[in-house]
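Limitations

Structures in this collection are predictions, not experimental determinations, and the ligand pose is part of the prediction. Treat each record accordingly. The example that follows, with iron/sulfur cluster as the small molecule, is included so readers can see exactly what is and is not provided: the inputs are given verbatim, and the output is the predicted complex.
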Amino acid sequence: MKRALLSGNEAVALGAWCAGVRVAAAYPGTPSTEILEELARYPDVYCEWSPNEKVAMEVGIGSCLGGARTLVAMKHVGLNVAADPWMTLPYIGVNAGLVLAVADDPGMHSSQNEQDSRYYARMAKVPMLEPADSSECFEMIRAALELSERHDTPVMLRLETRISHSRTVVEYREERRTVDLPYEKDAVKRVMIPGHARLRHPVVIERLGDLQRESESSPFNRVEMRSTRIGIVASGVCYQYAREAFPEASLLKLGFVYPLPEKMLHEFASHFRRLYVVEEMEPWIEESLKAMGIDVVGKARIPRDGELDPDVVARSLSELMEMDTGVRGGGWSPPAPRGTPPDQSVLPSRPPVMCPGCPHRGLFYALRRNKAVVSSDIGCYTLSVLPPLSGIDCQVCMGAGVGMALGLEKAFASSEANAGKAGKVVGVLGDSTFIHGGITGLIDMVYNRTLSTIVILDNRTTAMTGFQDHPGTGRTLMGEETFALDLAELARAVGVESVRVVDPWDLAETEAAVAEEIAAPRTSVIISRRSCVLRERQEGFPYRVNEEKCDACKRCLRLGCPALVMRDEAAVIDEDLCVGCSLCAQVCGRDAIEGVGGYA
Ligand code: SF4
Ligand code: SF4
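Predicted complex:
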């Protein structure tokens, strides 16, 4: 046996490899990204970054039908994109096992919403396992694949940020199983015309009964009996929180979470006057228990938004538990304070900012100068919403910047109240997200004759999640050189009349392009192209402010570059941060900023 300290994502990858997964597909998204990055390091497994999560799911469906054990990974919002194939996959079944590893992000460390993916398991009538540490991540992948094959169904492995990114010890044997199942044609089972789907839906419902029986005896559901005065039901990281907050409490730890082990829950509940459910986000377990006729205390006390931790759990429940046990705080002792906490009021606020030399800065500066109404999608450039650039009006999800631009333009075109805004709409999105979900919106704009401009912020990578490749970069996840999608040619091919490429470090060129395209009555695309400065260090030199020339007008500060500050009535550049993009020098009206060299 080997022992290793692994994150949950690393353990999922190792478990998948040992269990014989031969095909894996994903679109990068925090907190799930590292699963595929890790798995791609192992031999004899095909891994791909798919253009989006829906395609990843479809690749997975084809692969499992073709007889290969398959892993599909994504973050919670990605499952919205993949929901269409996901909802029908249980009808057609799997052949070799398919596991969907989906990672939720309570507290929204890197997401636009808090979304509880457990509802997708119930909605699709798909079994769901939820690990509580890396060791369970490793074990559950194999168990989930076997469960998938035993019941001819996909299985969801539901992760959360703290499980995906925390490291705990995993004991494992470095052995890889071989699974290679024969492919068989079965159109009634695998072609979901309504007549076939009507035959398959009762099978899916009946399967739930079999799964429920399996859940009752699953080793991942266990009772830890201690005090008979406090009973808690929890799963995943919340099990760890509950155990730490109330070490004397009895716990029913759920790992096979859907379908729930109903008999086991009734039996456990019978020992306690009051039962508690500790879970993050939605009252998913709580609602299920109440539907079974088990009265529980859950979201009436425990916060429904944000992340929990042992302290939050303890504070939420200690008053009631004190009544149950007669013991002060229900046995919870607040942690000893660790020194004097800092006075928050004297600490400077440090909002997130785009990096010094970020290629997106010049583009958003140009948009602001042109008073554009900007709809955006999700990427590191979304940080331009903050002052001083204040560059974005609205944003919801990946690819939406294009469709929203169309909607805004159509509304403004027929509006008296917003008369001046028609023709000023610009949709922005990244290169990876243009391929992910933006291209269909662009086709719609051309088809429905929308006189707006789309800007593709092409920094040659998927920067926000850690520089993953995509179909435009010319490299695959497996490190192979491949065809690089030409975004400009693609835009022209779908009928965009004007497509131009600008360098956002050249402010005059970028501002002129934005002004011309906003003014022109046509659908247009501007590709703002320069590599992310973190991925590809540019050939620049630090710039310096000539204090003799600087009159402290602060114009350069409108760029929001973190390398630039005002000190003693003059701008100052931190040469350790400056990458020499020259934007500040281009903005300064007094030629007070001088480059030692120039940019490539
Ligand atoms: S724009 Fe030029 S003159 Fe104005 S503060 Fe910056 S460096 Fe000084
Ligand atoms: S040249 Fe100016 S804008 Fe560019 S990184 Fe340096 S300080 Fe920032």
